[in-house]
What does this fold into?
Amino acid sequence: MTLNGWLQIALFCAIVIALAKPLGWYMTRVMASERTFLSPVLRPVERLLYAGAGVDERQEQHWLTYTVAMLVFNAAGFVVLFALQRLQGFLPLNPMQMSALSPDSAFNTAVSFVTNTNWQGYGGESTMGYLVQMAGLTVQNFVSAATGIAIAMALIRGFARASAKTVGNFWADLTRSTLYVLLPLSILCALFYVSQGVTQTLGSYVDATTLEGAKQTIAVGPTASQLAIKMLGTNGGGFFNANSAHPFENPTALTNLVEMVSIFAIGAALTNVFGRMVGDERQGWVIFAAMGVFFLAGVAVTYWAEAGGNPAFAALGIDGGNMEGKEVRFGIAASALFAVVTTAASCGAVNAMLDSFMPLGGLIPVVNMQLGEVIIGGVGAGLYGILLFVILAIFIAGLMVGRTPEYLGKKIEAKEVKMAMLAVLSLPLAILGFTAAAAVLPTALASLANAGPHGYSEILYAYTSGAANNGSAFAGLSANTPWYNLTIGLAMLMGRFLVIVPVLAIAGSLAAKKTVPASAGTLPTHGGLFVGLLIGVILIVGGLTYFPALAVGPIVEHFAMLAGQTF
Amino acid sequence: MTKSSEISVFDPAIVGPAVRSSFAKLDPRVQFRNPVMFVVEIVAILTTLIFLRDLAFGGSRLGFSFQVILWLWFTLLFANFAEAVAEGRGKAQADALRRTRTETDAKLLAVDGSTYELVPATSLKVGDIVVVEIGDIIPSDGEVIEGIASVNEAAITGESAPVIRESGGDRSAVTGGTQVLSDQIKVRITAAAGSTFLDRMISLVEGAQRQKTPNEIALNILLAGMTLIFVLAVVTIPSFAHYAGGTIPIVALVALFVTLIPTTIGALLSAIGIAGMDRLVRFNVLAMSGRAVEAAGDVDTLLLDKTGTITLGNRQATEFLPLSGVSERDLADAAQLSSLADETPEGRSIVVLAKEKYGIRGREMGELHAHFVPFTAQTRMSGVDLDGSTIRKGAVDAMLADASIAGKHRSDGQAARELRQVAEGVAKSGGTPLAVARDGRLLGVVHLKDIVKGGIRERFAALRQMGIRTVMITGDNPMTAAAIAAEAGVDDFLAQATPENKLELIRAEQAKGKLVAMCGDGTNDAPALAQADVGVAMNTGTVAAREAGNMVDLDSDPTKLIEVVEIGKQLLMTRGSLTTFSIANDVAKYFAIIPAMFVAFYPQLQALNIMRLSSPESAILSAIIFNALVIIALIPLALKGVKYRAVGAAALLRRNLLIYGLGGMIVPFLGIKAIDLVITAVGLA
It folds into this structure.
């Protein structure tokens, strides 16, 4: 580990912290339908959209109506994306004449982008035409992120409101978060990326003749526009197969930094939005702090593991840490940081090959996802995810102050506990269930590139990434098979909708409750003690579940490596 | 029931039946009520069947399997034992109550109202009127409609001093099973046989009608959810093992599963609930439901009657304030004379004060040829007539309106104005002014003061620390009320309280999302008692009040409301602390069992065996033994409850998180290691 490395990490953290408050302020205004400096330009567009869709933005919805609207919208998105992929051979804007995807791959990809996962069983530049990339994938990159923000808003309103029947209007939340937040930020970022050398063209691939005289086809395309929302919306689906390790998708150290910051920016700001909307910014900072502790611990372990490298090499006199699978222009610190950021925040973009990480360096990304993507998390998803754990933490420990549990004046009762448990259960069900099945099925095992615990880790990673809606891949696993396309697709659906629906049920139930005024007898939730409590509950309830599964994967691999055995 | 009888946790009289009932409770229909323990039972049955099969057809490591299975059953028995002990303590009290409920005959009044016939008490119906005479046991709950009697209520309160029960007013309720010591009363029966107060009390302390409270239901959902999570964590392990080319014995999986699921809190949950009710009962408060006890812990606002709760029941004379031209001694003398025959506590306190301050000794009314004029509601004054002289004392406005005084003083005269001024000063300081006049001439004012109970200020400060707001309810005028409120340190007061504005106050607090507790005894308190989230009715009160409240205080001591709140908080804290402890325990259990489980094919995982347990078998066995023994070890805590301190939620949380959270993580490491050392030394594994 070097000072330079730590300075890069510190700079990243400082920028994220500095952005949280102003962006949180702006987003609070946007989501409360207040006027912002962009209103003169965007308000007419917004009205036009509502008028076109026949939506009354002021018509608030009951949580069930809100849920149905969200589900219908997502189902429609799935159908369109599936159709675009299957029919791309007949559609325009396809200069490379890409043919239709197989049904299972199209299903997997459609689910993947609708659920904000962006797991890619295919290689972008060799499979997808520009129309699918832009009208299909990029559109979902926007609206799946906006869906996440909308769900988070509904839950926040549940906490902020008292004796209310409604939790907001899904169509308005979706439109406003896309129009006022995701779109302007994406334009800014895209322009910056273009300035740094990211491609942005609708022309066909470029043929080049190398010095040796060999012919080489260089893939280009509308990358910058898709890259911006890929990061901001914590989507992570790369334009190119190599994702953010590709020089046209992440050319410089500066783009690397901006990409990482834009992964965290909206998620971090949402904690501030939460604090503002419930009337106490400290409540937001406490959640941010708990996320921060997990994040820093993860970065420290990963950076330490990668900088340390394999002791077997050190014995051969080779030192300098583990550079296998990393881009030289980023180095170890920025690669380790990127890996933690992208898995903490459910983004899934990668700038280095996780499969080549040290066992513990690869363990952290898995754990990040298994905790339920609550460390900043996917846009919106991270906030509602951690609030589920807050509900459980409050319920478990809240009784210890001699009152029935309450959070922000809302009593946490049977209904909230039931829904939170349902949501929390969906992740281990998808991850452990499918991994256990794949670990014994010959069809599934045939896809493995590595033997022993490392091969097992590849399977575990794939389902973890899918269920947690992350989308990053450990690689080493040929996942574009009917078995994996189908099961990872199901894992993504479970990890998304089996969480969202209970979350909205909680939002509805909380909104209907009275708010109990705080007193000296109320459990304080704005201090360091609560941060510690929340961390403990996330680790024990969210993390320990996977201890056996991790023990026979990355953990045993680590101890084997120490004993000189590699896989 | 003897008052505040301390039953020790492991009283032999309770333990014996509890052990027997631990086995009886293995019935799956009983276990089904407790999801966590029900799952343990299913697992125990299945592994026992597998063991029996292996025993018959041959299997490996039978001795080890046998021990694991044995401890599974012990886990269940210990859980049942915890519940049985908690119930046993209630049963002991119920038995004591039953002994007092002897078969009695009732004297049922005939329709003509003069003759009665003897019928068995059990045949009485609601609305029947019975006569109860000296020495009779009151046959059933009812309301006195005629007469007055002293009643021994030791059967239900444990207090042997007789109490007065009379028709009309706020002391009209009588309880079946109590005994009339003097006089004769007519009682209208208000409860049918089997649903009397005593019957309800017996079933309550026995826990026969125990229903799960809302918080218990929610907690059970959480525990069931955690159990499901661990089902997933454990059932997937064989597949991972298969991938690695190994197999894992079923007993090891079962041991991991049972130690991971929250058995500790699952086993103790109902014992905690029963013990909470029991603590109230031993405190001579009967909660009509567990829900009420839980609500008591959540109370935000406490409505307390001034008289008897905040101040001593009686006001006392503290000062003589003469008008100008009257000496203090003359005033004292007149006041003392007027009070010699006055047996009210206020009157006696005037005599005492006169003696203390001026050495005016008590005089005999007979020697003075004095004639006492008692207080009446019409005159609102009392006094004495002696040798042509009349002395009167009474409320200021009543005195000024009196004809003889009005004859000497014009109402706007100098003396009258001065009197009003002095009286107002007294009222402002929280006292009650009592005017004194001799032969129609105003002498001055006696300052009667409400004496705030010693230590009450500190208790209110403690309540404030808990986040509870106290509101004093009084019939006094706002000025007096404000002064006493300030002296007692309550947060707010309701002066000139009427049943209507009391009810309004409760509704207003509840509209703000607050939970309100109050106590009351009169019929006109009934609506407020019913509206309050925690309504403690005094046992001396009316039937209506007792029906409206959700708790009854057998001692009729309104200050108990504060303890009731503390008991409620203690119940919730105990539940939360043991839940946290139970969940925190899991960390150590993973570290004990995971390396042991995979040792056959991943020996590298021995690095996780940070406790250095001697063998895989002893590791698994130690974990499951610890898991079972910790239940027994925590029974006393579950029954006695976690100590409540009024230090504010932040400090409480810090303390309990440290003890039960961090402690819950560390203790099993030590415990499992210790058990490992023992069973290795003994050679069990």
